Amino acid sequence: MQPKVAQGKILIAQPFMDDSFFKRAVVGITEHRKDGTVGFILNKPVKAEIQELIPAITSEDSYSVFYGGPVATDTIHYIHTKGEILEESTEITKGLYWGGNFEKLIFLMNSGVIRSQEVRFYIGYSGWSEGQLDGELESGSWVVSDWFANYAFSSKSEKLWSETLTHKGNTYSVIAHIPPHNSKN
């Protein structure tokens, strides 16, 4: 039996999911309540740095930006490891936080206190209304697993999907090696 969806879990797309937004996606769940679920695609980088999108960030450090999902793509969100110094942060799982005081975040980045390996930015988010994700899980679209901080910060985006399946073990480690294009099977 697969674990239940909860804050601090990840959703790993099944290998043959053809949805253009979620093909081979790994989605970190930041909020899961009765009325819906919010998360961010962890392995879809965009060709931009946060300084291009938010000119107030003047740090010379190179902060990555990722496509968080198809909902509200005119918004920017962030996941970080600095919840103890960034007020209003929500702890997702041990040592991993979502959001917080944005003005202070910018100040801490510009001051060199928060480095690029400690925060990731996301354009848009992934969201499911009440019951929607349950239906997708029942149809076998997702595998649920634990979210480790290295999935958000140190793992290579292009390898994250197979890495998370391999960590799950058993049959999933075999699935992790299925080529991305059906013609190569």
CATH superfamily: VC0467-like
What Rg, in angstroms, do the CA atoms define? 16 Å
Low-confidence regions = none
Report the count of strand segments.
10
Arithmetic mean pLDDT: 93
Distance between the termini: 27 Å
Tertiary shape: globular
In N-to-C order, the SSE pattern is: EEEEHEEEEHEHEHHH
* Largest sheet entry: 10 strands, mixed
Share in β-strands: 25-35%
In which range does the helix fraction lie? 10-25%
The count of domains is 1
CATH architecture tag: 3-Layer(aba) Sandwich
- Secondary-structure content class: alpha+beta
CATH fold assignment: VC0467-like
* Total DSSP helices: 6
CATH structural class: Alpha Beta
Structure characterization notes:
The chain has 185 residues and is of the alpha+beta class. It has a single domain, classed as 3-Layer(aba) Sandwich (VC0467-like). The chain is 23% helix and 33% strand. The protein has 6 helices and 10 strands. It has helices at residues 50-53, 102-110, 132-138, 149-153, 157-168, 170-175; strands at 9-13, 26-33, 36-41, 45-49, 64-67, 71-80, 90-93, 96-98, 119-129, 142-146. Strands 1, 2, 3, 4, 5, 6, 7, 8, 9 and 10 form a 10-stranded mixed beta sheet that branches. The longest helix is centred in the C-terminal third of the chain and has 12 residues, at 157-168. The two termini are 27 Å apart. The model has no long low-confidence stretch (mean pLDDT 93).
